[in-house]
Fold:
Amino acid sequence: MPSSSQSPDESAIRLARLTQTQAIAKGDLDVVVAYWTPDVTMRRAMGQPVEGAAAGRKILEPTGVAPSPILYQRKSTSVEVSPNWPLAYEEGTWSGHIGSADAKPIVGGRYAAQWVKRDGKWLIRSEVFVALTCADAGCKSVAVP
Structure:
């Protein structure tokens, strides 16, 4: 949560990340996408590239096929806002849970994000997720060589 020692921009970014993470847990993909630029780029935890908000949303959509979808949770550990440009850098940890954000994580790691401020709102322009730990079915994932 934002604290009184943070700048308003850092607090806004941390709140945006928290809101997006809660939306992932609830399956509210409209809210999730609202925090990405339309041309967002991502590198998924196992190395797969994702280009654009529409492609990012598709990854999070339930398929209706077992097993249950993996719900990704992110926790910001640091945010640095540029004093000169409308840019910020965020680092944090992430975890993947089958079916529920409260379930035991099956995969996890670290992430980094570039944020850009547009029309007074902070948006994610780019994210990189790296898988570092796993349990159970999460250990069967294959990394892109």
Notes: The chain is about 25% helix and 45% strand. The first strand starts at residue 36 and ends at 43. The radius of gyration is 15 Å. The CA atoms of residues 42 and 127 lie 5 Å apart.
